[in-house]
Specification:
single chain, 222 residues, 8 helices, globular, binds magnesium ion, binds zinc ion
Length: 222
């Protein structure tokens, strides 16, 4: 039986995640954990969000190897830390703790974590985030919610990316909406295209409101 070992690992992780949260609260920083399978378009989505959102944003890039995504973000003049997990298929709270030491926290309103592309275990590791965004792109097919319910259950919102390709694909937005809301009735769904910009207004309004509400809540405690 190795279940108790896994429980220990997760509770040690959660303890560090709470420390991360405390540090970010002290600096009034909102943190988003972005999850999807590889190739869904997370980096492009973050780039397009940075261009439209009038906040001081930093990014933490999680990949098994390479710094190609961090190089893209750096081109926008945004502080970025690349984490290479060296084979591990998810980020954990200690990796984020280390990354936070290398970001200008006193000058940051919002941190995007681009998690390792994987629809399974990242869902089990809290990082200290305010919200988890799960992305499904139209090119992946509309069956992922049924196949990987765990990650869609923890999502605060669902981003459906690449809707500009809908005319060419057998992808049913209705089916995705229905399956997702069955698992997660409180969550929001944002169909959008990082390529054409369609659907971004709604998403930007929602994330902006989330950050504002978070800051107001912290103020009311002081
Ligand atoms: Mg990427
Ligand atoms: Zn993993």
């Amino acid at each position: 039986m190795n279940i108790p070992v896994l429980t220990d690992i997760l509770s040690a992780n959660n303890l560090i995640a709470e420390q991360n949260r405390k540090l970010l609260d002290d600096h009034r920083i909102y943190m988003v954990n972005l999850l999807s399978s590889p190739g869904a378009g997370k980096t492009t989505f973050i780039e397009e969000t940075i261009k439209r959102l009038d906040l001081a944003i930093s990014v933490i890039e999680g990949d098994v190897a390479s710094d190609v995504d961090a190089v893209r973000i750096k081109k926008l003049g945004i502080p970025v830390v690349q984490i290479n997990t060296g084979g591990s298929c998810h980020l954990n709270a200690p990796m984020i703790q280390k990354a936070l030491e290398n970001l200008p926290l006193h000058k940051t309103d919002l941190i995007f974590i681009e998690n390792v592309g994987n629809l399974i275990c990242p869902a089990g590791y809290k990082l200290g985030e305010n919200i988890s965004l799960v992305m499904n792109s139209t090119t992946e097919g509309d069956d992922k919610i049924l196949k990987y319910p765990g990650i869609f259950r923890v999502a605060t919102s669902l981003i459906i990316n690449k809707i500009d390709l809908l005319p060419y694909l057998d992808y049913s937005l209705e089916k995705i909406n229905e399956n997702f809301l069955k698992l997660n009735p409180q969550a929001r769904i944002f169909p959008l295209s990082s390529k054409t910009g369609e659907g971004f207004d709604e998403w930007i309004k929602w994330i902006r409101t989330g950050v504002d509400n978070f800051c107001n809540k912290l103020k009311s405690y002081n």
